[in-house]
User: Fold this.
Amino acid sequence: MIKPLGTLLAVALAVSLATIPVQANTIKQFEVPARQTAIRILETLKPIESLIEETQIPVEPQQVTREVVEIIGSRVNLRAAPNLESPVVRVALEGERFKHVSTDGEWRAIRDNGQTLYVSTEYSRLDEETVASTDSIKTVRQLREGTDNRARDILSSVGRDYRRLELLRKEAGRQYDSEYGNIPEDSAHPERDRARESLNKIQKYHRLVSQYYQRYSDMAGGVELPATTEPRWRPRFSGSIEAGFGTNTAESKVAGTTISDTDVSRSNLAANVNAELSPNDRINLQFGRTEEIHFVPSARTRARGAYTRRFDDKARLTAHAGLSNYRNDADDTGDLDRSEFGVQGVVTPSPTFRATGGVAITSTAYPNDDARDVNDTRLELGAGGDLSESVQWNAAYRHANHSFDIDSLTDNSQGHLEGSLIFETGDQSAIIVDGHLESNSFDANNDPREYSRHGLRLATRSRPLGGAQNEFSLEWRGKSFAVDDLRDFTEFRGGFRSREYNAETDRETALRLNYRRYGNDTVVAFLDYIEARLDTRRDRGRETTTGLFSEGDLYIQYFMENNGVERNALITQYAWLGISTGGRTVFRIGPHIASNTEIVVVDGATGPDGDDLGTFESPNSTIRYGAKAELRTRERPLRARVSARYELLKQYNIDNAPTLDRLHIEGQGMYSITPRVDASAQIKLYTSGSDDPNATETTETDLLVGLIYHLGSRGR
Assistant:
C-alpha cells in the first residue's frame, strides 16, 4: 500500500529551503541602481556645458536632394488628419509637389505653407528633387579655447560609475535571456513583459549616458570610453520547489437518496531547477510526484534532466533523459514504466542560415501486460534562413517509428515533410506560402490503414502600426488511402482573422470555412460536408474605465446528399455580453445564451402516418441560458483568476422535457507571501440538477493548495 506523503512533503520542502542559496537578484532590482548611476554621471558631466560656446561660420551653398510628394490626380483633397472623416483643408491639382514628411499605410504626411496635411497614397507618389541649400551660416558647438583639459578631467572622473552602469546593463540582459529567452516573443507572458520593460529602461539609461559622454569626448579631442572588465563567473541557480495537498469530493443523489459518494485526498511535490555552470553550460532538472491517497490509491512519478552546451553563439547542443512510472494499488493492469533519451542541436553558421536536428527514443513497458509494450524512435531535421532581406524560407522533416515487442501488433511508421516561404512586403505585412506531405505505413501487407496527407496554403498577414492585425488564408488539403481508396477526400479551407486593439478597446473577428468531398459517393459511411465558424469579440474595458463587452460564436455544418442518406445540418451559436471594468483588475459579468440545433433533411421519406417527412428539426435540439462572471487581477501581491457560470439547459422540441441546471465555479490564485515564497490555490465546484425529481443530482468539489519556493543564486 502506498503511504501518504503529507509528512514527507513537509520534510522535503524544509530541507530544500535550507540547502538552496538565497541570494536573489531580479531584473527589477537592477533598474533603481542603474537609474541612480545614470543621474549621477549626467550631473557630473553637466559642468561641461558651461565650457561650450556656439560659433557661427560661413559655408558655401550646396546642392541637396530631398523627398517630395507629387499629386497624380486631377483634384485631390488635402486633409487635416489621415482619415476620410477629417476636414479638407484645400484641394491640390495634378503635378503639385510638396515636402514629404512620412508615409504610414494609406496616407502620406506633407508640409504645405508651414502646416502638416495628409494625402492618400492612391493619388500621390514619392519623388526626389535637387535644390540649392539656403544655409550660408553654420552654427558649431565647441569647447572654449583652453578648456580641453578641464573637460577631459570631468570625463575621466565618471569612469568608475560608467563601468558600473555598463555591468548593470550586461547583467540585466544575461538574466533576461536566462529566464525568458525560451519564451516566444509573441506569446502572452505578463512576468516576461514586466521584466522586458525594466530591461528597456536600463538600456535607455546606458544609451543616454553614452550619447552625452561621446559628444563631449569628441569636443575634447577624443577621450576613450572607460574599459569594462568582466567579473569572475559564479554559478547561478533558478527555479522553484512546490508542495501541495488537495481533496476531491463528489456525491450523486436520486430523489434525495445518495447513490454514490467519493472522497479523494491527494498530494504533490514538484521541483524545477536551472543551473548555469558557465556562460555556455546549463543544466535543467525536473522532478514530480503525485499521489492519490484514498479511493484509488495510486502514484505517478516523473523525473527529467537536460544538459545544454553553447558553442560561440553559433551552435547549441542539448541532451535530455527522463523516467516516469505509474502504480495503482487497486488495479495494476495499467501500471507502466516509461524512459526517454534524446539529443537536439541547432547550428547557425551565419545570421541568414540555421539548421536543426534531433533524435529521441522512448520505451514504454507495462509490467503486467507485455502485449502493450512499445518502442518509439523519432527523428527531426530542419533548416531555414533568408534568401534576401525580404524573403525567408523554412523546411522540416520528421520521421517516427513505432515498434511492438510481440507479433500480434503491427509496427508502423510516419514521415512528415513541410516547407514555407515568407515574403515580407513592408509595413509589417507578409505573404506566406507553405505546404506539407505526410505518409503513414504499416508493416503488414495491404493494410487498409495506410494513407498519405498533403496540403498547400497561401496566407497574407498584415500588422500595421496602431494596434491592428489582419490575416487571410486559403488552403487545399487531401488524404489518400493506399488500399481503401473509398475513404479518400479533398478539403478546401479559407479563413480570415482581424484584430484591432488599443488602450480603450479590443475587437476581434475570425471567419473559417471548410469544404470536404470524399472520393466515392456510394459509401454511406462518409459524407461530404461544408462547415463555417464565425467568432467575434469586443471589449471596451481595457483601461480603468468601465465599458461594454461581447463575445459570440456561430458554427454551421451541413452534410451533403450521399447515396440517398439523410442530409443533416448542425447549427450551434453562443453569445455572452455584459459590462466590464478595466485596469490591472478586470471584472466581467453578463447574461449568456447558447443553442444547438439539428435540422434533418429526408426528402422522399415518410413517417408512421404516411406523411412526407421532408425537413424537420430534431428533438435533440437544446438551448442553454444563464449568467457568467469572470474576475482577473494582477494587483501585487495577489494574482488570481476566477470564473463562474450558472445555466439552464432544455430540449425545447420535446413537450414537458425536464430542465437541467448546473453551476460551475473555477479559480486559480497565487499570493506572494515573501519575494521568495508564494501560496497557491486551485478550486473547482460543479453542481448539476433538474426539475425532474427522479433525475440524478451531482455535486463535486476539487481543492488544491500549496506553497511555491522560488530559488536562485544569480550573482556574479
